[in-house]
Amino acid sequence: MQDVWSSTTECRQGQKRVWVRKAPQPVTVPIQTTAHGDNVVSPIVDQEGFQRSLRPIRVRVGLETPVITSNAFQVLEAPLIDNEGLKQNEVKHFIQKYAVGLVGLLEHKVKISNIGKLYQNVFANWCFTRNSSYHSGGRIVVGWKAGRFTVNIAAASSQFVHFHVTPVSGRQAFCTFVYAFNDAGMRKDLWRDLLLLNTQDPWIVCGDLNCVMALDNRIGAPVRHSDIVDVSNCMHACGMEDIKCVGNLFTWNNKQQGNNRVFSKIDRFMANHAWQSCFLVAEVCFMPEGHFDHSPGLFSVYPRDDGGKKPFKYFTMWKSSTVFSDTVKQAWNTQIIGTKMFILINKLKRVKQALKELNKVGFIDIHGADLRAYQNMVNAQSAMHNNLTDQGVADAELTAIQEYKEKHKAYLAFLSQKAKLSWLKDGDENTSFFPQSIKTRKMQNQVYSIYDMKGEWKDTADGVSQAFLEYYKLKCY
User: Fold this and answer.
1) Taking a C-beta distance cutoff of 8 angstroms, is the pair 158, 190 a contact?
2) Rounded to an integer, what distance in angstroms lies between the CA atom of residue 99 and that of residue 118?
3) Which residues contact 4 (CB under 8 A, 6 or more apart)?
4) Burial code of 164-196, b = ≥16 C-beta within 10 A, e = fewer?
5) CA 145, 146, 150, 156 torsion: positive or negative?
6) Contact 178/209 with Cβ under 8 angstroms?
7) The model's pTM
8) Are 122 and 93 within 8 A, CB to CB?
9) Other CB atoms closer than 10 Å to residue 2's CB: what's the count?
10) Domains (ranges, CATH) in the chain?
11) Fewer C-beta within 10 Å: the chain N or C terminus?
């Protein structure tokens, strides 16, 4: 191939043209003279109404700026920001709806730089603390209304916030919000810290333990025995037992589809014996998750109400009385005239009244009678050893032993029935097991709050009663 060249003189233009920058020209501004002799600048306006610029346009020559084809925000973060906003709004709505005065937020995922926004959005005019100094992410936030609670922070770590709380009622207690690590080895530090915090004062532990405490606390995945041992030993050593719970049994699930879905009960509210003795009327309601990852727990302490007429209850200890059979037969064989249903109802009423009188005679203070019978037996045995040759003292000792056996058997039957336990070991009545079992069952049998037929939350005695009446009226009529 032949290269083709041409000179400047051979071009059609005849000579090479060179671009030369023009010198800036001064801007001429028309000036008009007013009737008073003043000079006024008159702007020049074209036919379309645009005014001419009075200043020359300067072109700045510099490095070419690269074109940016993306913005500074990551698109994938937008849903997260919206999700956090939804969660905060739901927390705020939850607080307002249920008049909550003390809140623990776990796994909030709010950066330290945004804590102020969280306070302004959710906890405005509240007192506020967090454990950010123990963990870079800040895993626990505690907020409370100063007019309803007095809170003094006692201890904290990356997995808990422990404080002393005094409500307006004046009944003080310790409270520990827990958010355990997902790693079993790191949770050992939490169990050790809780053992160090153990107290005989009223104490409640609540939050996300990140592990189950029983084999039936998880569905969809196996439970290893090693996952249960540490937390169970810790809670047993601290005297912790579950507070009455209603609502969702499983508080967390992995949001997977089909057979991959796993349900777990890893959120708990637990209290020691001193707390349960002080706050007898309390319950926790685990509600639907909504925008949260876990079921939110609403903990309520209701005013104690021992009023009202108690229903009649038959106790098996009455059978130990020597006059039990005669008392029942005499009441049942009473002559009554009327229909069969009328006769049956009235006979049952007479038997009930007779058993009430029997209870007043020999069982009104079953525990005291058991203690007195035991002391009489001990005294009779001491007297026998001091008078070994006295046959009357020896016979009195045998009588005292028999009387104690009868009283003690009745007392054991009373404890067993109250605790709803079918087995009983000798000596268990002297431990805290049965009294605590009775307290626990009493708390479980009470209904303090409920959703009515309209889906409205009722947490007063009248509201709960009305909700039951409306439900059964609809079912029966």
Assistant:
1) no
2) 19
3) none
4) ebeeeeeeebbbbbbbbbeeeeebeebbebbee
5) positive
6) yes
7) 0.57
8) no
9) 4
10) 77-301 (3.60.10.10), 316-445 (no CATH)
11) N
